[in-house]
Amino acid sequence: MDLEDFRPKPKPEIIVGEKLEAFSVAELEARIVALRQEIERVETELSTKRARVAAAEALFKF
Question: What is the pTM of this model?
Answer without folding.
Answer: 0.70
